[in-house]
Amino acid sequence: MNFSDYQIQAMSTDQIPATKGTDLIVPLLGLVGEAGSLITEYKKYLRDGDAHKLFKECVIEELGDILWYLSNFASKFNLDLDEIAENNLKKCHNRWDWRDLEKTSGKATNYIFDKNFPEHERLPRNLEIEITELQKANSVIMRAFIDKQKIGDDLTDNAMLSDGYRFHDIFHMSYMAVLGWSPVIRSLLKRKRKSSPAIDEVEDGGRAIAIEEGISALVFTYAKDHAFLEGISAIDYQILKTVKNMTAHLEVSKCSLGDWEKAILMGYKVWRCVEKNRGGTVIIDIDASSISYKQNNGFICLDLAYNPSQSWVVPPNQEEHLETNL
To answer: Which pLDDT tens digit goes with each residue over 49-71?
Structure first.
């Protein structure tokens, strides 16, 4: 039986009064009540263990009642359960598939939004950016260099108390590495796609840059309340959904929630290393969808794999650099 057939047959057994308001509140109350009954059965199982011989049958019954009320509510809003189920699976794949790909095949995302543009308007596929910190007047500032040439402005935390936000360009670098997208870095590198006025204005212009900076600030606020994501392996769905909504009109909308999660987690791995060591070299490899870190003294400090709490320090004669591999 498919969901649509079930929905039709279940609706034929509807005994809920058609009174305005009642017809909707009853199935909602029913959902809550049956969920409570399900929890009660599980409580009995925790208490009695295998002695609760009817546990499986009781769970089947309670889940069936939950499904009936869910179907009833959906029908009254002319919603199709098959469509609801399909949309939910799409959401789950959009959110989590990147982890399975990383574990099984190591395939990179490889979004290339500028592949049809001249070389000088494309983001470089590989890049090393040196981050340094120094005292200037009463502020601690961050500077970034490529091949000893300074890029961008001096950055401070712009806060009364130091919190490391001066290193936030690392997040833009991570978006560039994992998503193949960063109007901010594109502007810093003078790689705006001016050969297409519309792309230059919409995708590389001031609004897109402001949105990316807003994402950086939004996620930083969230990360600050979660130990800067150390030991965190998943970002709250609502944060990712907000980011997706903010970028819905831009080319990066092709990237999934999972892509954004990967970019954020990898970015904060590198950010924590830079903040801890007050600088270092950030290594970007767009082809591999990776961003990694190397200390300026040649040592590597990077927490790897699925456990973000791990930390590795490797002598330079063993590895030139390590890639984050979530």
So the answer is: 999 999 999 999 999 999 999 99
